[in-house]
Every structure is written in structure tokens, then in C-alpha cells.
Amino acid sequence: MDEPRPRDGYLENGPVRLHYVEWGSARRPPMLLLHGMRDCARSWDVFAQSMASDFRVVALDSRGHGDSSWAGVGGYRYADYVSDVETLADRLDLREMALAGHSAGGRYAWSYAVEHPERVRALIVVDIDPDPFDPQTARDLAQIASEPDSWNTLDAFARRLGARQVHTSADMLRMHARALSKPAQGGGFVWKADMRTVTEYERPDLWDTWRRIPCPVLLLRGRQSSLLTHETAVRMRQALPTSQVRLAELEGGGHWFHQDFPGAFETTVRWFLADLPDGG
Hints:
The chain has helices at residues 45-51, 78-92, 104-115, 135-146, 154-162, 170-180, 196-199, 207-211, 230-238, 257-260, 262-274; strands at residues 7-13, 16-23, 30-34, 56-61, 97-102, 120-126, 150-151, 181-183, 189-191, 217-222, 245-250. By secondary structure, it is α/β, with parallel strands linked by helices. The chain has a single domain (7-134, 202-274), classed as Rossmann fold. The strands form two sheets. Strands 1-2-4-3-5-6-10-11 form an eight-stranded mixed beta sheet, with helices on both faces. The chain has a three-stranded antiparallel beta sheet with strand order 7-9-8.
């Protein structure tokens, strides 16, 4: 029987110590999960535990997030995040994997897939675009940089998360708040993530990289998301061969659809993976 909680692991990429968590048996096909900005590996908990019956599920804490170490000034270049994925995949010998990324993690995921096509069997991109500028991302970055990074209680932190994740349940928000925070000296809680992950965030133009994705792709967005718009999602679908990409626009949730409606998210991912060319 699989453990109800994931196993922790650590590895080094230069001066940065990376943390990851793992569910399921190493004998199963691998699935690697990459979170978005200011989230963490444990943001995937519900989905990962559900998929562990069929996959070896690994979720990475990106540098400066979760229980990975902070990288310091100049340590949050786009290429650094992709390098972290390369390091993890090499050390754990992840091959023929299903690679899923939410938000910024989706960009790192498809960049990795283009550079290492022999390692990625299928790609799941959750609510992110290839554009060098996104109005909602710009608003989010400005808002995060202006807000406090500490809270007196976990409930207060959960309410802060709920101000943006308006479709996410109270139980999921509280679970997410626990995963993203740590006790502060003198009481209360602080965000685990380094604020430099926001102030030094790089968002290169990735349209050319998107067009070079070599594997089957599921592009998934919540219809209530204001980050990946319907119009941009359609452009992304049209930029790849029709037989290669599926676009799923799911009703009722937004940018964090995997947390808003984890059951519907899992069903959609399983539908995609079951129909891969070799039969899933």
C-alpha cells in the first residue's frame, strides 16, 4: 500500500539545495509535477496522491520555494529553473515521464521537454501562455510585492490565498496555507518563498519554444481564469499539429483549477494520458 504522505528527498544543483516529494512505487511510470510562482511541491498533494496508484509521482520545490533553499541575488533566472528540472530528472533517472506544470511551472516544463525530448512522453500545461507579457501576471506581481509576507494565524493566511483563489474550497485553502508557510520568530507565520522569486521573475517570449514541443500536449485552463485567456489558448492549440495537442477548458474554476476542482482535473488528465499513441 502507498504511503498516505509523500517521501522527502534532497539534491544539490550547484549552491542550491533542492527539495522534492515522492508518492507511489519507483517501479511505476514516472510523473513529474512543477508548481507555479509562490506555490510549492505540496500544492499538488491531492492530485499527486490520487495518481500514485498508477504512477511514481514526483513534485519539485523550485529554488526559493517550499523547502528548497533560497538562491540569492541573481539566482532566479529562467534558465536556472529549467536547470533544476534537468538536475532532478537526471538524478532520479526519470524517463518516458508525464510532465505537468502549473503556471510558471508549465513554462519550465515545456522548455525542458523541448531540450530533452527523449525523457518526456507527454506534457500537461496548466493555465499559462508563451507571451513575454501577460496583464494578469503583471497585476499579480505588483500586488504580491506590495502585500505583507507574514500573518498572525493560518486562517488569516488562508483568507489571503482565498482572495485570489476564489473558486478553491476552505479546506483546500487551509491545506495550501500550511504547505506554503512556516512559523515566524516571535509568533505567527511567514511565506516560505523568497520574495526575490517575484522581484527577479523572468518571463521570456516562448512562442518559438512552444511550437517546437515534440510530444503530445494537454493544454488545460479553468474558464474563469483571467491569466490564460480563451483567445490565447486557441492560438496555442493552433500553433501545434491538431493531432498533437488537446485543449481542455473546464468550467467553474480558475487559474488554480487543480485545487479548485481536483476530481475534474484528475479525470481530464487521465483522459488525456489514456489516449496516448501507445495506449497509455
